[in-house]
Amino acid sequence: MFNVGSGISGVNGVNVAPIVHCVRHAQGYHNLSIANHALHDPSLTPYGEEQCRRLNQYFPDHQNVELLVASPIRRTIYTTLLSFEPGVKRGLKVIALPELQETSDLPCDTGSDLATLHKEFHDQPVDLSLVHTGWNSKTGKWAPDAEAIATRCREARQWLKSRPEKEIVVVTHGGFLHYLTEDWTGSSKFRGLSTAFSIGTGWANCETRSYAFADETSDNASLQETSESKERRRGSEKPLSKTEQMELRQTTHKTWEQSGYQIQTKV
Question: 41: which of 112, 138, 210, 244 lies 20 to 30 Å off by Cα?
């Protein structure tokens, strides 16, 4: 577990948690076919790079972003560098946070060794200080089972909530984002280019949603999507209740386990 810092000092010394802009990475080569899931830590396609340029152009809050955070997997790092170039030009570095890596142990969702990352990004504004040897082992803390994933999601949220910055960009993965936000709506909506895909996500490539931290006393550090963000993407559609979210979560877990995308949690 990494150390957490102090949050923003607000009224009467009360910490004010940041706004978090969550982003799914742009299209990678693994998104093109099931066969490409065998590619180890694939990069972005040319179309994925174009998606980043569009996000760069249309993202409305570049001037407010004070921290860039990404999963250490190559496609998420490149998505952050390309999509949030204005922040990079202002001197922001991309902090690679291993807790944000994708949920499965497929080759496409398994990151590169630390030495490889250092070699590839040595001349880029990427901070790998929180990435340690074994981060890509997919065992123990990093195992692809629901309990381990939920635990590292909670740790990631706690770390983000403790940050002093007012607005943070987090670039991560479609499956992981359902765990991170605890919103399972549309969890099989996007299944790649083939309808044969048995797993999916409710997040499109380069989709962005904005969140505030819930006002709660527990250490879960729950995220709540802002009303502006929900209105942009859903209009007046009624959100799922907490019970409906839990039922959908269980259904998604079962589907992902049956597909081999996630292993069953040991009791």
Answer: 210
